[in-house]
Amino acid sequence: MLNHEINIRVRYGETDQMKYVYYGNYAQYFEMGRVEWLRNLGLSYKKMEEFGVMLPVINMNINYLKPAKYDDLLTLKTTLTKLPGFKIDFAYELYNEADELLTKATTTLVFIDIKRNRPTKAPEYILEKINPYF
């Protein structure tokens, strides 16, 4: 497994009337985790798209254990759970400053060839970066 951590400060606009992070904002946090996970490997969504591949989310599962609140400093751990094929799977754990697990989630994304608008295998340049960890 290959993981990466980032910190996120909860902004006021991301909260609901109770000052809890609005449930829909967690998807954005997970996207931030994936983008930085890729960047940590020397890859980027922008470069993948320039090379003709995009990665839409096809499945997301979230378990809300405790609320994240306004001004919390969160730690998001993003983990690649297995070697990608046509799909790539990530797991997420979101912690507060007290190191309490707030949220667990998974996403599945599919590699799409932009020109053909069809699923395609994970590009070799991505697999070369990931293979040493499996």
UniProtKB/TrEMBL annotation:
The keyword Hydrolase applies. Coiled coil: none annotated. InterPro entries: 4-hydroxybenzoyl-CoA_TE, HotDog_dom_sf, YbgC/YbaW. GO terms for molecular function: fatty acyl-CoA hydrolase activity. Pfam families: 4HBT_2 (PF13279). It comes from the Bacteria. The keyword Heme does not apply. Keywords: Hydrolase. Belongs to the 4-hydroxybenzoyl-CoA thioesterase family. PANTHER family: 4-HYDROXYBENZOYL-COA THIOESTERASE FAMILY MEMBER, NOVEL THIOESTERASE SUPERFAMILY DOMAIN AND SAPOSIN A-TYPE DOMAIN CONTAINING PROTEIN (0610012H03RIK). This is Acyl-CoA thioesterase. It comes from Aureibaculum algae. The lineage of its organism: Bacteria, Pseudomonadati, Bacteroidota, Flavobacteriia, Flavobacteriales.
